[in-house]
Amino acid sequence: QRLTIYLSEEEGCGIMLSFRRWRCSCSRVAAIASIVPLVLVVHLFFFPVVPSFDYFGTRQVQHSCVPINGWVEGGRDNVLRNPQPLLDLDTLFPADSHGAVVYHGAPWKADIGRWLSACDSIVTAVKVSEKIGGKSCKNDCSGQGICNRELGQCRCFHGFSGEGCSQRLQLNCNYPGSKEEPYGRWVASICSASCDTTRAMCFCGEGTKYPHRPVAEACGFKVNLPSEPDGPKLTDWTKADLDNVLTTNSSKPGWCNVDPVAAYAFKVKFKEECYCKYDGLWGRFCEVPVSCTCINQCSGHGLCRGGFCQYDLIPSVLSSIREWPRWLRPAQINVPDNAEVTANLVNLNAVVEKKRPLVYVYDLPPEFNSLLLEGRHNKFECVNRIYGDRNATLWTEQLYGSQMALYESMLASPSRTLDGEEADYFFVPVLDSCIITRANDAPHFSMQSFSWDEGACYAPKEIWNSMMLVHWGNTNSKHNHSTTAYWADNWDQISPERRGKHPCFDPDKDLVIPAWKRPDVNSLSLKLWARPREKRKTLFYFNGNLGPAYESGRPETTYSMGIRQKLAEEFGSSPNKKGKLGRQHAEDVIVTPLRSDNYHEALASSIFCGVVPGDGWSGRIEDSVLQGCIPVVIQDGIYLPYENVLNYDSFAVRIREDEIPMLISILRGINGTEIEFKLTNVKKIWQRFLYCDSILLEAERQKSVFGHVEDWALEFLQLSEDDVFDTLIQVLHYKLHNDPWRRQLPHQKKEFGLP
To answer: What Gene Ontology terms describe what this protein does at the molecular function level (predicted)?
Structure first.
């Protein structure tokens, strides 16, 4: 028999108990499900010069909410109320003058908007049996890892390995040395002091007053003064500077024995090149221990050690029911009622009502996520936040922070399921942005050839049938090669044996998602996104690197595929190296490389804002929309965030690259009514470019710790429209029922993709 416990929404359990006959269920093969890798491999490609949005035109037209994909067959619970009558969606939800159908305030492409308007909200809940794992791991992972009790496998901490995490690894800080390079060639972990070989990180070490103070990079080596005025200091990686770093003489620039109180009072000298580079330390002298950054901060349970949770992210039978996440409540729990329960761990089944789409999140080996966080040598790398004094949240400018934000939202989402048989999608959380930014971190981390800034272009052919979530939607229709000007990111020479012949971006199956932008409370409180047209005095605005013609400009002619350079040649509002302005410079047009004192204010004072590539993708569309400015997209054949699902004509302007000389005359020719229409729609969709769900998850965590809501959170708590994650779930729901690529999968024969 089994004991059934009904859990309420409250933190406790109880109310109703009943006994039912115990039945074993056999595992069945999952129905067709898409794989969604979190490959924010920020560059992709393929389609016409200006993206074509009529690819849905060849699909079967949907005139009801009855599913047309096969996953509901074979006795599964129906997702929608059945039978569903045929509906004239074209009449019920007509397109507006721009070809859009509005759903939840956003202008969608007509077919998508119609289906969402008719069907997204009438989904009925299905009962999903969530398996709560009870398997044990060898030696309980020896205290050097956590046990995945679903699989019975250890997830070992950084520097440990083996089935039971009993093997200690030797991760050296330095490459092998030579007479010319005693400490080996440069790498971010290079160390002249004490190396922690579990993480390849450099510290002061035993025998010093502060043994756990970092001695990262230039801190431990001789630094030569500039050879000319205003020149940079140069570090000599062949000569250690331990005489200074380890000194106890207050008149010498020390570090490992420097007392913070004395240093703050200017009573002792210290080496300026030394600082708290690693996560978990704060203060000028690393004297304040603070929280490290972990996925969802371990849900408030267990210690975050440098990025790795000493707590299983997947609920298990050892978890207190109070620790179960909200997406597992309310639940009906089936507990075997027999004498062996007290002696052996068992699996539990928690029956939960959920609405589709349902997403199974793979618990990949930690090499793909947690270890990438725990081993990072710069606390700001690949995360969207760190923690400062008193564990206050400090948001980062890291564009790749979207990976972490999306991963955290998915783990906490009601759409998440632990039942792979019921899942509609499988989410693969690879934090490959950590691989990009950590490529030179340490000798053991030799992954430079693994992923680039244009990573989905490089994606191995075996995984290409997955749905790629990316930042760079280059369809290869015009720019059919690597577009980066940075040599290390170039993928042109990768063998077809590895990547196949696939494009970099396929709008039939992939999705461009917004980059992470630091939450700006000031812009939010001032409501810059809602500023009316009469307060926007600048016609067109672009601020950024304009290439080799300008001081400090990127030297490569291929930078920005030449687009920024052409824009500056015509409309540059700041003198270039020759003292010249753009041929068509105008008073109300700003195209400048000079950093603005208040970038967001400048955007919010403009009607149109330029969205052009940098070294591939850039975050300019997010900058524009979040400040209420109409995006002007100039990049042929390259999709922007949501451009294959939202109707861009409702809130943006597209200019072909060969139309750049006519840009301003085109913008001046747009009438006032059309401008107001687009500005109004930007106001309606701006939150879809904001990772509000992730931000509010952090606000909730901080409230549970401090007992009050942080000032920055108060502004975000007032937001109620759909954000990035809501938009993704809506797109997944639509694709689940209408995606032509999904329907064709079983019948296609391609040279790439899994057998």
So the answer is: glycosyltransferase activity
